[in-house]
Amino acid sequence: MRCSSYSGMEEKLTKRINDRKQIATKRFKRVLVGEEEETTYALFVENHITTVNDLYDDVWLEIFEFLYINDIFNSFWNINNNLNRIIVDRRLKLYANLIRDESLDYFNLTILPNIHSQQLISLKLTNCFEKQMNFNQYINLQSLTLNSINTMQLKLLLIAKHLTHLKYFQINAIGIFGQDNREIIEQILKIKTLKTCRFNFGLQKMGLRNETISAISSNIENFIIESEFVSNSLFKLIPHLPKLQYLNIYLREDYRYRSSITFNSLLNLKTLRLKISRLSFNHLKLLFDSVCSNLQILVLNGCIVNDLQYLLPQSWINIFKSSIKLKQFKINLKYHAGNSLTIQQINEISTNFQHHQQKIRIQHQHLPNGCSDFDLIGEY
After folding, report:
1. E strands present in 182-230
2. Which InterPro entries does the annotation name (predicted)?
3. pTM for the full predicted model
4. What CATH number does the domain containing 292 carry?
């Protein structure tokens, strides 16, 4: 990650300058002779000022690792021929943040003609297809963030198969028409080098209507979906993610999507961060049956409506029994019961949790409209 405060860069630069001064001082001491040694050395220390021209190439390469290529060109390009030579050194890996339109124009007109496209390993872009970005030339690209890209543009990019070295892929998409994103998912799963994938489709719900995904075994280890994803569709994905270690997902149930369930498929999953919305406890239990073999960290939050299984202590006891390796747990769920529960039922629920479920506390709230809410809270 690039440094915004440059504190790390300053610390490293100061250390390198001091090291250089010590080397120069030792060399100077070795050539001093006679009675004027102390006076001459004092004058040397007083008058010797380190400038940018005194820094070795590897120092500059380390400094530039903290900066985006936009900042490097704005601050250092054409200061002198030596710095220009270092900036285009193939050893220097470049990171480009082109979120603003003017940044992309500057990149295409000023930066790109002067660098080797193979140097670029990270790109952040907005509306990239409107500017006709040629991804084919970035053969060493390892990280790509795309903002404001629509479904058709994303499909064209993935089908072209230019992203052969990609390790990190973040998609903030717009204009998702329909919820069958099977082709997009399949193409992403086919990127063999990909380790981390992050989706955000805004307010659109994401799902897979087609019953089957091609026989693909992905190398993805970290999967983050920030927009709503249909729980049935997740069960389709699970068999294709055997190396998954971290899952952060926003799940919602939708009975228009159908899927078979595969159990104990995510044997490497260590961390699950789950946000749920209108997800039945049955689907939550099915998910845990698929992921809990080696799960160590669980974070669960969201809202539920009218599924009384969430309010039964035994339901949670069964989940914890299947999570024998769980080391860290945090839950914060809001349950909207409406006016479907009597005072006696509410008291029974509270009493049962106090007696049978130590890991989760339950708090009841009477709303002004006569409805009831429950907060399920727990952490260890």
Report:
1. 196-200, 222-230
2. LRR_dom_sf
3. 0.80
4. 3.80.10
